[in-house]
Amino acid sequence: MLTDFGTISAALAIVWVMLIVSKYLRWRLAVLARLFIPGSVIAGFILMFAGPEVAGAIFDGETRFGSLVPEDVYGIWRELPALLINVVFAGLFLGKIIPGPGQIWRRAGPVIAYGQAIAWGQYVVGIGLVVALLTPFYATPPVAGALIEISFEGGHGTAAGLGPTFEHVDFAAGTDLALGLATIGLVGSVLIGLVLINWAARRGLVDPSGIRAPTPALHPDPPADTTEQLAARPATTDAAQPIDPMSLHLGLFALAIAIGWGLHRLLILLEESTWGGEGGTTVLAYLPLFPLAMLGGVAVQIVVSRYIGMGLVDRALVNRISGAALDILIVAALATLSLSAIHENLGPFVWLALGGIAWNVFALLVLAPRMLGPDWFAQGIPHFGQAMGMTVSGLMLFRIADPENRSGGLENFGYKQLFFAPIVGGGLFTAAAMPLIFAFGPWPVLILTSLLLAIWIRVGYRLARKDAAASAEQGLGPV
Questions:
Q1: 20 to 30 A from 449, CA-CA: which of 208, 233, 241, 298?
Q2: H or E element: which one contains 147?
């Protein structure tokens, strides 16, 4: 037991030290800051290169040095992502004021439709590539069709957290491919996003005089005014509190995860007693815990806001807990990334990366002008960044394109997350996509996602025309 504790301590200590090292590297190497690469990604890749597939291969000889990190430490790191992803998702809505659906839709309907279209389109492109090309020519499993959405919309955290699901659907290499795609998407979101912003400035789609350099001083929680109000609440930082604020908030996280675990068990029991009985179709048993932990967090937040008061939850502290869990998760996942798995599946990896990038650029340049009104580029660029990399990437690109928030895109982007996060980008469908493909095959899921894509594009077009007609009636001129 003492040895196990020492191994766990060493595994966490190495992660934290490397996060400090990555902070120093981002300070010393300006290119890392300009590309907006998180310190956790830098630390994860350093540890990956110190592992058995790089350093181990260099030092491998008659005595086999192995790697610069002990194997038992890697064993701990392999277990961390599936655990910590539950913490990240449990805190998504803790401490947030959740407006009514009608209020959100009236304010951000077109943006919601656009964001949903991007996500469902990633499934259509991914599954379409698998059916038409990857399975016939590379013998790629059909579940790989979900990789673009898992990696690009979901990001490193979702890709790592779905590791057990990849194992359940007999696609163990999928975790490494998803993490690799997430890295491609993250870097591409910044590089391609900057190219698109400069293109838009030359064509007058954004004000070139307002463009400024990227800054990390952004907070991804929507909407901005609500965040400020919550941050100003002093209740949980009062020294007279009978329980330490950190202990209280960890308890809220634990309660959210426990509720999610209970929902998970109920769903499994439901499936076992109905369609998933002996010889039946199993789907929910492969569903990971983290999207249900997110629903548990929503339930906790509703109870707290209704019966106790918003002052109980400090959103800033929730962000710290979630952020720490996400940092450790990403470092551990990248440190254990298998380069050999990517090399063995290089063809499918490249096709999926190109397909995902092409779809996201198409959505911004073709769908956004028809769905988001006159400020379509400023409104659309944060969703491009998020759909390629992560929320902060999207906000960074928006801050460059519209630093004064003249388009109102920041608030709309925030409201969209309340409709978006529970479903895709790491939500319930993201978690269920691979089990659904595994159970029913790629064609039913391709038909379903194609239908949803068409519906959301149609909704976005109708809302855009409605807004244009309303503006014309008010004498604002054509849009």
A1: 298
A2: helix 147-148
pTM exceeds 0.70 for this model: yes
For residues 295 and 264, the answer to whether their CB atoms sit within 8 Å is no
Say if CB 255 and CB 308 are below 8 A apart.
Answer: no
- Whether a cis peptide bond, with omega within 30° of 0, leads into 223 is yes
Residue 453 and residue 294 in contact, taking contact as beta carbons nearer than 8 Å = no
Q: Which residue has the higher pLDDT, 200 or 475?
A: 200
- Cα separation values, 188 from 36, 147, 193, 390, 426, Å: 11, 16, 7, 11, 20
The amino acid present at 284, given as its one-letter code, is L
Q: Which two tokens mark 292?
A: 């249900």
Instruction: Name 123's Cβ contacts closer than 8 Å, sequence gap at least 6.
Output: 145, 146, 148, 149, 433, 445, 446, 449, 453
Q: Per-residue pLDDT for 359 more than 60? A: yes
Non-local CB neighbours of 254 within 8 Å, separated by 6+ positions = none
Confidence label for 479 from pLDDT (cuts 50, 70 and 90): very low
The whole-angstrom separation of Cα 208 and Cα 22 is: 33
Q: Give the integer Cα–Cα distance in Å for 283 and 223.
A: 35
What pLDDT digit, counting tens, does each position of 42-63 carry? Answer: 898 888 888 777 766 666 544 4
Number of helices (H), then strands (E), in the chain: 23, 0
What's the chain's average pLDDT?
A: 83
Q: Would you say residue 13 has pLDDT above 70?
A: yes
Tokens 């002996």 appear where? 278
